[in-house]
């Protein structure tokens, strides 16, 4: 997907793109098929590919195969770039990057080829600019992985390029570990393409590669630190009651931790902290109905002085969690931002241990409004930094309103706890943790079923954990 306003249409940039595809043909020996388009929901066709032998209605350029570049392919590609450079439309200006990528997948039976490796290349002047329910990097990356890679991250990677482009960056982070985002202000287009070539080749090579078993088996986690960001607005009363076990219901978290310890007999203990969704409050709760209600002896949850988290297992754990989870806040939820900052707040020092598995849970029926504070990429990075950059130390579960899939987006849903708005930004950040990011639609089932459903993921993450000595 090439934005017509991106400065990539000079001779040097065109030569760099040709060189990129020449390398792929030579180094993989694969059949390299290119579907060039601008960022639009409509397929932009030119007569450039006819010189390479294409029919007039065939926009797919077979650039090379078996190590040889097809005759006329480079010229056809450069001709296409010249036409895109002067693209004009009454509908858009060619900067609908995610729709431009996914609409051909949905509409064409010949794209992608069955079983192909998929390389998504999104080159923008700035960022994706569609700004509607389709234009969500989390939703687009899920669709690309599912529809192009059949859910196998080894088969797909993404090259994204733009200037101030966190949406494109989040898409790349979400697709696979072989994806990369390049900022135009930091890296030239030619340098970015050259840097990405080995990753594109590796995506082809990894198609059916299986990692060998490690020589030293992982030791498994001995400690788990659970951090909750709980929406404390008035619409969340029923969810909070379920989480705490109010009104005679079994406490969902206590049941989950019991089941977890039953599976993980080597786990010595766990920490549990709760942070509010209210802006400016990133210290973990020690009092009921915080921060709306001031801390006082009457609202204290019985935690030791200076300790802002629970330690389990203990006989008092269920009651203590019921108290700290009773959070009250306003209606502009900053769930993800508060959660990320809580991991770095000095008030919470000691909660996250160097040898623990970090399990994060977001519970809300609204999207997170933290775009006024920071980008999704920066918030994700703060969480990753807290575990030393090691995604193997992390499991993230977001429980929020679903947004459907790319080909069938959803709006407000109705569930057992009432209405929920789509958590589009929440889903986007969660997808950025790839297989370590789990999402559950709050409208589909109850919290007990949700926690039961993620039990195997947490157990698996713990079993594979190998803390640095």
Mind summarizing the main beta sheet? 6 strands, mixed
Strand count:
16
Order of SSEs, N→C?
Answer: HEEEHHEHEHEHEHHEEHHEHEEEEEHEH
Helix content estimate = 25-40%
The side-by-side strand order for the widest beta sheet comes to 9-8-7-10-11-16
Overall mean pLDDT: 94
> What is the CA–CA distance across the termini?
45 Å
Walk me through the topology.
Layout: H1 11-28, E1 32-34, E2 61-65, E3 68-69, H2 73-85, H3 97-107, E4 118-123, H4 137-147, E5 156-162, H5 166-175, E6 180-183, H6 189-205, E7 223-230, H7 237-244, H8 252-263, E8 269-276, E9 310-312, H9 317-324, H10 335-342, E10 356-363, H11 376-386, E11 394-400, E12 404-405, E13 408-409, E14 413-415, E15 418-420, H12 424-431, E16 437-441, H13 447-463
Parallel strand pairs: 4-5, 5-6, 7-8, 7-10, 10-11, 11-16
Antiparallel strand pairs: 1-2, 2-3, 8-9, 12-13, 14-15
Helix pairs in contact: 1-6, 3-4, 4-5, 4-12, 8-13, 10-11, 11-12
């Amino acid at each position: 997907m090439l934005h017509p306003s991106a400065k990539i249409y000079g001779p040097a940039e065109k030569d760099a793109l040709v060189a990129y595809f020449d390398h792929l043909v030579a180094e993989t020996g694969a059949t390299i098929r290119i579907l060039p388009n601008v960022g639009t929901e409509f397929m932009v066709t030119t007569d450039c590919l006819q010189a390479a032998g294409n029919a007039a209605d065939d926009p797919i350029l077979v650039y090379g195969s078996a190590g040889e570049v097809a005759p006329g392919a480079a010229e056809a590609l450069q001709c296409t770039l010249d036409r895109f450079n002067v693209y004009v439309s009454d509908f858009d200006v060619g900067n609908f990057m995610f729709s431009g990528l996914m609409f051909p997948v949905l509409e064409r039976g010949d794209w992608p080829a069955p079983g192909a490796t998929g390389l998504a290349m999104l080159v923008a002047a700035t960022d994706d600019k569609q700004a509607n329910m389709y234009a969500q990097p989390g939703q687009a990356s899920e669709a690309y992985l599912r529809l192009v890679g059949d859910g196998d991250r080894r088969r797909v990677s993404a090259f994204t390029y733009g200037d101030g482009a966190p949406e494109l960056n989040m898409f790349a982070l979400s697709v696979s570990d072989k994806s990369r985002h390049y900022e135009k202000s930091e890296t030239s287009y030619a340098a970015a393409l050259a840097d990405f070539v080995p990753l594109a080749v590796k995506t082809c090579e990894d198609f059916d590669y299986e990692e060998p078993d490690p020589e030293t088996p992982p030791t498994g986690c001995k400690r788990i630190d659970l951090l909750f960001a709980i929406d404390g607005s008035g619409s969340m009363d029923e969810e909070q009651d379920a989480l705490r076990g109010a009104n005679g219901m079994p406490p969902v978290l206590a049941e989950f931790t019991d089941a977890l310890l039953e599976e993980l007999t080597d786990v010595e203990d766990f920490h549990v902290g709760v942070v509010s969704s209210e802006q400016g409050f990133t210290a973990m709760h020690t009092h009921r109905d915080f921060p709306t209600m001031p801390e006082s002896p009457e609202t204290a949850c019985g935690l030791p002085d200076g300790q802002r988290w629970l330690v389990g297992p203990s006989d008092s754990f269920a009651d203590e969690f019921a108290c700290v989870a009773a959070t009250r806040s306003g209606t502009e939820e900053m769930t993800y931002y508060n959660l990320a900052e809580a991991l770095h707040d000095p008030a919470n020092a000691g909660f996250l241990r160097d040898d623990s598995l970090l399990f994060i849970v977001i519970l809300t029926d609204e999207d997170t409004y933290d775009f006024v504070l920071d980008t999704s990429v920066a918030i994700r990075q703060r969480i990753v930094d807290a575990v030393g950059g090691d995604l193997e130390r992390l499991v993230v579960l977001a429980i929020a309103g679903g947004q459907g899939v790319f080909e069938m987006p959803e709006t407000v849903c109705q569930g057992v706890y009432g209405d929920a708005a789509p958590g589009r930004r929440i889903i986007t950040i969660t997808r950025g943790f790839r297989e370590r990011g789990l999402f559950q639609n709050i409208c589909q089932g109850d919290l007990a079923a949700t926690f039961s459903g993620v039990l195997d993921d947490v157990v698996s993450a713990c079993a594979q954990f190998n803390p640095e000595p």
